[in-house]
Amino acid sequence: MKIAQIPTQPFAGQRPGTSGLRKKVTVFQQPHYLENFVQALFEVLEDRRGQTLVLGGDGRFHNRVAVQTILRMAAAHGFARVLVGQGGLLSTPAASAVIRKRGAYGGVVLSASHNPGGPDGDFGIKYNIGNGGPAPEKITEAVYARTQQLTSYAIATEVDDIDLGRLGEQRIGDLVVEVIDPVADHAELMQQLFDFDAMRAWFASGKRMCYDAMGAAGGPYAKAVLEGLLGAPAGTVINGEPLEDFGGHHPDPNPAHAQELIAIMSGPDAPDFGAASDGDADRNMILGRDFVVTPSDSLAVLAAHATRVPGYRKGLAGIARSMPTSQAADRVAQMLGIACHETPTGWKFFGNLLDAGQATLCGEESYGTGSNHVREKDGLWAVLFWLNLLASTGQSVEQLVRAHWARFGRNYYSRHDWEGVATDRADALMSSLRSRLPALAGQHFGHLLIEAADDFAYTDPVDGSVSKAQGLRILLAGGSRIVLRLSGTGTEGATLRVYLERYEADPARLDLAPQEALADLIALADQLAGIRSHTGMDAPAVIT
Ligand code: G6P
Ligand code: ZN
């Protein structure tokens, strides 16, 4: 092995977003593009020498090429060992589990999450630290700063590719590359948390489920646990083979993109339980028969029933939700007498709360749910939590959710995504509304009263770090909210997200269609922000 110093020049725009650096595959295919980012990352990880790194991705197009490049760069940068998932595969939660279980220094996950894959799709890279969670902003900002100053990168040359199909150890010079079973550590962790006997009995009694892995990384994990350990019939997992283009799926588990599953769950022969996960298997969607559970409700239901599940029998230390996530979980926290933390969008903001023991369950409106078992959201974990509840209560998904609404009231919720907005127009919309926020408090719009309006800022209670400008909040009397923010995960133009929430306690009004229940808030959002006039669009691209 030789180590080559390859001259290079900075690329603009290598700043990690909500969840790592995410760009079109064609951008990553430019010579030196990936290498520059990895060089900057490794330079920032100053004490990396002699350490163990975890590496894997969601299997999308460009994954294998990138894995080989990163292995050669890890060899050139003094890592002692890299644990790489077989086939280059590791779901995001599994990577987190492996980092924690093996005491690794950190991990590199190759994923653009729920964004489409294939040669014309997206690719991404993110770094996780030794607690298994996404790198905090001080690291990602330092990496970005380094990318803007690079003149060369180091990479091992005159070496063969690692055989990613073969389990066990191989070498690149002094670096030991260990190809590991991507599923084993995560499946073992699931068995420590959930009542596998009860879930096995649920399937044995003839109950059925459908898990849509959407052609992405979740398939092998779901098959191993559901069809393997729990004895669910073959075919329970659909689209279970990870494919480089996800079989053409947009692997985002929501009612707009998981239409095959929605059709199955609303069909005449619908199984009892439906679920889906995204590209890197950290997101989840939960369904009953002809019944969709919103992610915000899912978090609240899991929190309310947590002590039924072995891993959470002792109760919850606290709950955390991202700011735009509905306040349903807050009501459960109040009932339990524990804190409900409100953080900016992005799983990384939960890391300190979990490490400090201030939160046990976390969730986001963007179909992410998880706990302190790892430091990422975890699709299969959420599905097993629900399955454990179905098995231990004997109730259906719909019964559990309706009982929850009856007890706590219902937080009607919807997110409207205006996609592909020209960046300058989106910025103009946000800055215009931001400047008018202070004047909104106290104003009436029809029967709606604005109590407060602000640009959400978060002070981390553990390390005191402050994150500003995390979304515009319009808080109305009675607990209703309108939140606007720009997505940090898109790769084309800007995506404006409008989050709408209304609380309803009246038992006679718990069964409205969400878009109807929220109609006055939807109209007010447009009136206040001028969404149609700023974007030049008539309707949001996606409503969930
Ligand atoms: C990723 C992150 C989440 C975040 C979501 C939406 O999945 O891991 O933490 O909620 O993206 O982010 P966005 O900035 O697009 O709304
Ligand atoms: Zn994801």
From TrEMBL:
It comes from the Bacteria. Keywords: Isomerase, Magnesium, Metal-binding, Phosphoprotein. Residues 14-152, 204-287, 296-408 form the Alpha-D-phosphohexomutase alpha/beta/alpha domain. It catalyses: alpha-D-glucose 1-phosphate = alpha-D-glucose 6-phosphate. Its cofactor is Mg(2+). It holds the Pfam family PGM1_C_vert_fung. One of its GO terms (molecular function) is phosphoglucomutase activity. Its EC number is 5.4.2.2. PROSITE patterns: PGM_PMM (PS00710). PANTHER family: PHOSPHOGLUCOMUTASE, PHOSPHOHEXOMUTASE FAMILY MEMBER. NCBIfam families: PRK07564.1-1 (NF005737). Belongs to the phosphohexose mutase family. This is phosphoglucomutase (alpha-D-glucose-1,6-bisphosphate-dependent). It comes from Leptothrix discophora. The lineage of its organism: Bacteria, Pseudomonadati, Pseudomonadota, Betaproteobacteria, Burkholderiales.
